[in-house]
Write a structure and sequence with these properties.
The structure is a homodimer.
Chain A lengths: L3 E6 L6 H9 L5 E5 L4 H4 L10 E4 L2 E4 L1 H11 L7 H26 L3 H29 L11 H8 L1 H8 L8 H11 L2 H9 L8
Parallel strand pairs in A: 1-2
Antiparallel strand pairs in A: 1-3, 3-4
Helix pairs in contact in A: 1-3, 1-6, 1-9, 4-5, 4-6, 5-8, 6-8
Enzyme class (chains A, B): transferase
Family (chains A, B): Belongs to the GST superfamily. Sigma family.
Protein name (chains A, B): glutathione transferase
Chain lengths: 205, 205
């Protein structure tokens, strides 16, 4: 049996979709969480100075989406053919594009530009992306792609509470199809189990 | 036979890796190039207000990496198994991380922050990434992954002259393994043909 060790900060962040997928796969992984103070000593041991990284039998993977796609394939959630796979990849890249805008805003420390970024994020970007996602999910039987669960759906559900904590944007509120999709994912037994046993506070720094 | 229509601005930018892969596949694609003035009228017809987009038999794909991965699979350049595929995905994500820093710097218009970004880009980020890439390629028989050509190599070679034009960074200069890899890709007959017939000037705006 392979061993899995996930290393990330002690927050949801970019690792939570990976934790969701590992849980979905019933993989018993070492959930190695480092604190900010440890980062300087951990950083030189990462491939490109970034986290998360996932060690599979000691072999190091990194890059969040690459890892998620790899686990998605293992779980049979990465499409039944190349066309379905590209649609799933597109869905995830769109979610990430939206998420990047949130992260850029959150970590901006300049008073003037932060106010501008915030205005754009809350008034333009958020409704733009979430309305499109709501429409896509309504047209795809409650999922992002082709009427069935994929790792795009799990990715989306996994970033929900962290996004809420970071910038107080509820990515499913007032959008019935996204709300339903989120419930569908959170009610998958293995994922339900994970959300019950993971650290309770949604922290960030 | 399927029809392919690629829509992008009249520059290399994010579309050039797609054009390289379509050429590698000997796919006769419509290379639809719009000028800045046309963007306002084209934008509402894109899935998420962005380019490039690739229409395959009229069905719209978007997101650069998703499209490249799809074409990479078609070309047999996306790995022979899931482990090889994830290594290729990681390589491309690393290249893109580096490229994003270049784009962020290039489009920054604030005098103060641009100077800071530039200092970091030229003195820290560029040698950091390119030294790592050089080492990876030296350890993988002249390629990014497992001693053989993948779409990561084609992606890397495709952004070379645009990056040089944008910020005057030659991503292969002084790094013999990256230089050799670039030559290997540019000497593939279909890609050589493409670079000879594409518009001559490396424009940007």
């Amino acid at each position: 049996m392979s061993t899995y060790k996930l290393t990330y900060f002690n927050i949801h962040g970019r690792a939570e979709p990976i934790r969701f997928l590992l849980s979905y796969l019933n993989i018993n992984f070492e959930d190695c969480r480092i604190e900010k103070e440890q980062w300087a000593s951990v950083k030189p041991n990462t491939p490109f100075g970034k986290l998360p990284m996932l060690e599979v039998d000691g072999k190091v993977l990194h890059q969040t989406l690459a890892i998620c796609r790899y686990l998605g394939k293992k779980a049979g959630l990465a499409g039944d053919n190349d066309w379905e796979s590209v649609l799933i990849d597109i869905a995830v890249d769109n979610i990430l594009d939206f998420w990047q805008e949130i992260i850029i805003y959150f970590y901006n420390t300049n008073e003037v530009t932060k106010a501008e970024l915030g205005k754009r994020l809350f008034e333009v970007t958020t409704p733009f992306y979430l309305d499109k996602f709501e429409k896509i999910v309504s047209e795809n039987g409650g999922y992002f792609v082709n009427d069935k669960l994929s790792w795009a759906d799990i990715f989306f559900a996994a970033i929900w509470d962290y996004t809420k904590a970071l910038v107080d944007i509820d990515i499913v509120e007032g959008r019935p199809n996204l709300s339903k999709l989120q419930k569908t994912v959170l009610n998958i037994p293995q994922i339900k189990l994970w959300t019950e046993k993971r650290p309770k506070n949604v922290r960030f720094y």
